[in-house]
Each structure stands twice: as C-alpha cells, then as structure tokens.
Amino acid sequence: MTEPERPTAGPTRGHDFGLPPDPISQTKKVVPDRGRHVSRETDGQAGVTAQDAVADTALGRKLVEENKRRAKLKNVHLDRPENTRYITISNQKGGVGKTSTSVNLAVALAQQGQNVMVVDNDPQGNASTALGIPHGADADSVYDVLIDEVPVAEVVKESPEVSNLWVLPATIDLAGAEIELVSVVAREQRLQRALAEYATSREEQGLPRIDYVFIDCPPSLGLLTINAFVAATEVLIPIQCEYYALEGLSQLLNNIAMIQKHLNPKLVVSSILLTMYDGRTNLASQVADEVRQHFPREVMETMIPRSVRVSEAPSYQQSVITYDPSSTGALSYLEAAAELASRGSGAAE
Q1: Most C-beta atoms within 10 A of its C-beta, which of 13, 61, 80, 225?
Q2: In the 8-state DSSP scheme, what is residue 4?
Q3: How far apart are CA 211 and CA 232, in angstroms?
Q4: Alpha helix (H) ranges present in 23-165?
C-alpha cells in the first residue's frame, strides 16, 4: 500500500506591505470531467483555473478585485516624512472606529519601516489593549505625563505587535484627569510640551526620529481631546457611514476651528476616513456621497468596510493586520495607510 501524499507547505508571506499570498493565485487547476475514459492527467488543455471557475460569481469578482488591490500595494514604497506628523484621530461620537483606525494605521506604517508612536489618550485604554501593552491601574500612563509631568521616555512602551512601534498607554486613572486639569496652569498644552520634550530627548540620545504620532481620543470634546488637538498638526476624522454619524460633525469642526483660532493655528483637518461601509445598503452610499460632496479634498478614497475580523482582533491583543492579514479589513487599512502617507500633512490646506 502506498503512503498517502503529504500536503506541501504554502509559500511564505512576502515583505511587501505585509501581504499574504493572494488566495486565487494559490488555487490548483480544476479539470472538468468529460467522461470516464478521459484521463485527468493528460487533459491539460481542457483544464480551467479556479479563478476562471469562480470569476462569474459575486465571491469570485470580490476575490479578483482584492487580488488586483494587493498587487497594486506590492509596488508601494513609503518615504519618511520630512518632519514628524502628529495626527489626532477624533470624533465625539463613539463607535465610529477611532481606536481601530489609530491602531491599524500605526501597524501598517510600522510594517513599512516607519517609526510610529500611538498615544492612547482614552481612559478606556482600548488602543493599549490592541497593541499588547499592559495598562493596569498600577502602570504608568498618559495620566502621569499630564498630571505629574513624568517624562514620556519613562512611560512609553515598545509594542510586541510589530517593530518600530511604541505606545504611550492609558489607564483608568485618566478618567479623573479631566477634573484635575481644570486648575492646572497651561492645562491645554500639557501633552504638546511632553511630546516635544520626548522628541528632543530622542535626538539628544541619537535615537531615530518618530515619523508618525497617532493620538487616540475619547468620544468627547473635553480637556483630553483639547490637549490632543493642541499637540497635533493634523486631525483625521473617522466617520461611520450612517446618518447619526453626520449629526455631530459640524460641532466637531466648530471646536477644531476654535482650537485653530485660540490655541493651535497650525492645526488642519487633513483627512476624513469613511468607516464601517456596507456597500449592500443605499444609506451607506448616500452618506459617503454627501460627505464627499461637502469635503471633496479631505475625504480619503479608501473606505473601511464592515468587518468581523476588525472587531475580533483586539480580543487577541492584535491589530487586524497581524490577526488576519488576508482579510478585507486588513487590506483596506493597508491601503488607507499608504494613502495617508502619500497625501502629506497639508492635504487639506
């Protein structure tokens, strides 16, 4: 009796933007059965690939399209920005994908060799969880930086998720910072000064410059978010493709305008990212069209679809890019990172 054939291992993942092999190109040839006397081994001309077999189905068209998108990303090379880009990711509405956007953009850029830091400025600490950083009540956090003026260098942690990625974690203590900051002198500029001192200390120690700093904000417009606006040069606004997500956008933009006028004239709304897009509904398309009509320069071409994998990844203390790199959500965030890098800091100016 002959030994059964052992399956061979698939090809290893390439280094191009962390993309796995596309599922279509790895499929075997499928030969139609034209009768019992036809040899499957010799009927090579009659064979059709799996791509041909599924191309006419909805799933097949989706796979073919994603294959093209992956191929396009493999040719992308990201240059380091001229200066550190400080990007606050904010929307006072909860559940629009702020933390997912912060985490996955950071991982995508770090995979491309950029030096990235995530500032978890939300008391919930979800960004810290997703990037594998312990943030129990006894851990040093952004709270210590804002209230006790502890240097960022003593608090920042390197993420196990990917190299070149650092995290300034948050703990539940940060929830009380809003009240404690009220009586503090120059309360709006605490985070900005701390990050500037950290950049200077890295330069003095001969450490590489941080290329991107993403500041993940709570779903509010309090002092924590104001600190994030003052510390940043750009604002990225994630907008869920549903009607309610549009209602608070004008209020958010008014607050940003006040920050620009009184505290940080360099701040610009550089990007708006449409998240949780469901192409099967008319509402999602209508919301996307309306946002693009009002903000034609700021809205990014890339849209983040609804994805179970994006929601699952944090429970494994991972980004979706490392949790399931072949998923549609991972592919979309990789595209968004490449687009953000290509847009530059003055995309909306």
Answers
A1: 225
A2: P
A3: 13
A4: 50-54, 58-73, 98-111, 126-130, 142-147
DSSP state of 267: -
Q: Quick one: tokens of 208? A: 């590489």
Question: Which single residue is written with the structure tokens 């869920």?
Answer: 240
Pairing of strands 299-305, 85-89: unpaired
**Environment class of 326 (CB within 10 Å of its CB; exposed 0-12, middle 13-18, buried 19+):** middle
Q: What is the pLDDT of residues 21-71, one digit of tens each?
A: 555 455 444 444 444 444 333 344 444 455 555 456 767 777 887 778 787
Dmax over Cα atoms in the chain, in whole Å?
Answer: 89
Structure tokens given for 276: 């949780």
Assigned token pair, 308 = 């179970």
DSSP labels, 279-297:
TT-HHHHHHHHHHHHH-TT
Asked whether the CA dihedral 32, 33, 38, 42 is positive or negative, the reply is positive
The pTM for the full model equals 0.82
Residue 120, beta-bridge partner list? 216
Sorted by sequence, the CB contacts under 8 Å of residue 219 that are 6+ apart come out as: 91, 92, 93, 94, 95, 98
Q: Indicate the SS3 state at residue 344.
A: coil
Both tokens assigned to 138 = 């006894």
| Model confidence band, residue 301 (pLDDT cutoffs 50, 70, 90) | very high
CA distances from 4 to 26, 28, 121, 266 (A): 22, 19, 56, 67
Give dist(CA 280, CA 323) in Å, integer: 26
Q: How many CB atoms lie within 10 A of CB 33?
A: 9
* pLDDT tens-digit readout, 121-162: 999 999 999 999 988 878 899 999 999 999 999 999 999 989
d(CA 287, CA 295): 12
